[in-house]
Specification:
Shape: globular
Distance between the termini: 25 Å
Number of strands: 0
Mean pLDDT: 89
Radius of gyration: 18 Å
Number of helices: 8
Low-confidence stretches: none
Number of domains: 1
Largest sheet: none
CATH superfamily: Glycerol uptake facilitator protein
Order of helices and strands: HHHHHHHH
CATH class: Mainly Alpha
CATH architecture: Up-down Bundle
């Protein structure tokens, strides 16, 4: 049986109730994640601390780990719990969702991040979202490589726990992707903020109007996601309909 290939989808898929519910789930889940993640950074600023200290970095990593765990958990039954354009790209590459649905997910994820950043801006009137940028003295191409490596780890973990049914985890898969998110922030946060998620970076960048090095947080995660996808799909996980799942089921052809 041949492996799945990229599926374009049909225009009427965009208005299918399952697609609408999944898209709304991605919007809300991404908003939850970005609000808590970026909010933790602003909270540190309010306490006159920053993420460049040991305690500050630990707080931000923990906040992101917990928030991403919750965001994936609340969306996984409806949309597959992507909460990240890089993860959605991996599902497109393997044909688990169509391009049509992926575009809707990307729009929802970006809008969710913008909505969360805007709510932070409105609720904390004297502060605005900080966003991410490459640390002084750290090369932008080093940051791209770092983003590739960290996103590779995130997407690989996503495949191993939430896609591959041979996983030993049961109903706690979101914890794994949450933990790897927090761990990567501890590893790379002081160098470039550890984006791994274009939506997470885009929302604060737009509302805070901070676009410095913004392209790094798109190029790196998309390359890292593609590499992890190809390696896990074609080298690690044998093609067997018993050992992998669709995320989420495709719309029937006769719809």
């Amino acid at each position: 049986m041949p492996r799945r290939s990229i599926i374009l989808g049909r225009t009427n898929e965009a208005v299918h109730p399952d697609t609408v519910r999944a898209t709304v789930a991605e919007f809300i889940a991404t908003a939850i994640f970005v609000f808590a993640g970026e909010g933790s950074v602003l909270s540190l600023g309010k306490m006159e601390m920053d993420t460049w200290t040991e305690s500050g970095l630990l707080v931000v990593a923990l906040a992101h780990a917990l928030a991403f765990t919750v965001a994936v958990a609340v969306a996984m039954n409806l949309s597959g719990g992507h909460v990240n354009p890089a993860v959605t790209l991996s599902m497109v590459i393997t044909g688990r969702i169509s391009v049509v649905r992926a575009v809707l997910y990307w729009v929802a994820q970006l809008l969710g991040a913008v909505a969360a950043s805007l709510l932070l801006r409105l609720s904390i009137a004297d502060m605005r979202p900080v966003g991410l940028w490459v640390a002084p003295g750290f090369g932008v191409w080093n940051a791209v490589l770092l983003e590739i490596i960290m996103t590779f780890g995130l997407v690989y973990t996503f495949f191993a726990t939430m896609i591959d049914l041979r996983s030993s985890l049961s109903n706690i898969e979101p914890l794994a992707v949450g933990f790897i998110t927090g761990a990567n922030i501890l590893a790379g946060g002081v160098f470039d903020g550890a984006g791994m998620n274009p939506a997470r970076v885009f929302g604060p960048a737009l509302i805070g109007w901070q676009w410095k090095h913004h392209w790094v947080y798109w190029l790196g995660p998309f390359i890292g996601s593609a590499l992890a996808t190809l390696i896990y799909e074609f080298l690690v996980m044998p093609f067997d309909t018993v050992t992998y799942t669709l995320q989420p089921p495709l719309i029937p052809e006769d719809y």
